[in-house]
Write a structure and sequence with these properties.
It is built from eight helices and 20 strands. By secondary structure, the protein is an alpha/beta fold. It has two domains: 205 residues, Rossmann fold, CATH 3.40.50.880; 104 residues, Quinohemoprotein amine dehydrogenase alpha subunit, domain 2 (Lipocalin). The strands form four sheets. It has a nine-stranded antiparallel beta sheet with strand order 15-14-13-12-20-19-18-17-16. Strands 5-2-1-6-7-11-10 form a seven-stranded mixed beta sheet, sandwiched between helices. It has a two-stranded antiparallel sheet with strand order 3-4. Helix 2 packs parallel to helix 7. The longest helix has 14 residues. The radius of gyration is 24 Å and the shape is elongated.
């Protein structure tokens, strides 16, 4: 997944995202004979489940009415297309060898774009051309960034992984971000799925569109896939816009610098919510953790916590950042700055009771 390293633990915040619109059941026209080519756009660093999940869905579809031969019943024909046919490394270190390049790939009816690093001009041109001639162009997770960069999402609803909402909104303000959706239909051809496993739901939704509910349900059963997220309008069963409750030893403290603190870090890339938890360890020395709330990056240990009177400092070795602040007289706020990558930003932490969501 793409990453512009934001400040303070890569936290992300979606601001004033438009409420999700219902997605009508897709109707697609299946050919009476022959196969449906499915092109998977894969470059370096592609997230495996983003393409392997939909790949397994499409390759497992069987339509008995199309003939007695297995070749007739397996109607979807997946293949990999990339900038070259040289082997490339995807997430987890697996090697994938593309079948075709963007110059010689068969004309697809379906295009699947997972999260990945590549975004060459040739890829962008190929995606735009595919959107003009294919039945479906679908992204999974931050593959939505590729569709947006290609100009396929301007003025349209779309979704992506919940940990990238703020980055997506910042980079593509003309796209109407939809939160808490497994998938969104952007127009008659383009679709976007949320994070990772959401691609399986969208692929089953597309199968449903071509061959109906019974075939899609049979495919899900063959996969032993128990989620029903592919049925209906694509709304998530879990509200990823609502952060998880986080508990720590800091929950017991209400005085001094110990306790739970929340703050908003405003940068040129957006506003990022953070939670800080401070407590004394078994030897009485201050310690703690920090959360990137919207990205579910919770419980990251803080380095070098120092409390000297009303002066509070700590560092986060993972992001090479440092907080320097001062506790107010009422012990309900710590005002200071966060410094990272030679940039200093104001950060005011306000005490919260119990855990970081109270």
């Amino acid at each position: 997944m793409p990453r512009t390293i934001p400040f303070f633990l890569f936290a992300a915040l979606s601001v004033n995202a438009i409420a999700a619109e219902p997605t009508a059941r897709t109707k697609l026209s299946a050919p009476e004979h022959g196969s449906i080519p499915v092109a998977f756009v894969v470059t370096e660093g592609a997230a495996m489940i983003d393409f392997a999940g939909p790949w397994e869905v499409f390759q497992d579809v069987m339509v008995p009415a199309r003939g007695s031969a297995m070749a007739d019943q397996h109607v979807f024909k997946p293949y990999v297309v990339s900038d070259s046919i040289q082997p490339l490394r995807v997430s987890g270190g697996m090697t994938v060898t593309p079948d075709y390049t963007f110059d010689n790939a068969p004309v697809p009816k379906i295009v699947v774009v997972p999260a990945q690093r590549g975004d060459s001009p040739k890829m962008m041109e190929w995606l735009r051309n595919a959107a003009a001639h294919s039945d479906v162009v679908m992204s999974v997770c931050t593959g939505a960034f590729k569709l947006a960069k290609a100009g396929l999402l301007d003025g349209k609803p779309a979704t992506t992984h919940h940990g990238y909402w703020v980055q997506f909104q910042h980079e593509f303000p003309n796209v109407r971000l939809q939160r808490d959706m497994r998938f969104v239909q952007s127009d008659s051809v383009v679709y976007t799925a949320g994070g990772l496993s959401s691609g399986i739901d969208l692929a089953l939704h597309i199968v449903d569109g071509y061959f109906g509910r019974d075939i899609a349900a049979a495919t899900a059963r063959r996969l032993e896939y128990e989620s029903a997220g592919w049925i209906g309008g694509g709304t998530s069963a879990i509200k990823y816009s609502e952060p998880v409750a986080v508990h720590s030893p800091a929950d017991r403290y209400r005085e001094g610098a110990f306790g739970n603190w929340r703050g908003n870090l405003a940068s040129s890339d957006g506003t990022f919510r953070v939670a800080v938890h401070l407590w004394p360890d078994a030897q009485g020395k201050p310690t703690g953790t920090v959360d990137g709330i919207d990205e579910d990056m919770n419980g990251t240990p803080i380095d070098s916590v120092k409390i000297d009177g009303d002066a509070v400092t700590f560092a986060n070795g993972g992001s090479e950042g440092r907080f320097t602040g001062k506790l107010d007289a009422k012990h309900d706020a710590i005002s200071g700055t966060w410094t990272q990558n030679q940039t200093t930003l104001p950060l005011k932490l306000t005490r919260v009771q119990g855990n970081s969501l109270d």
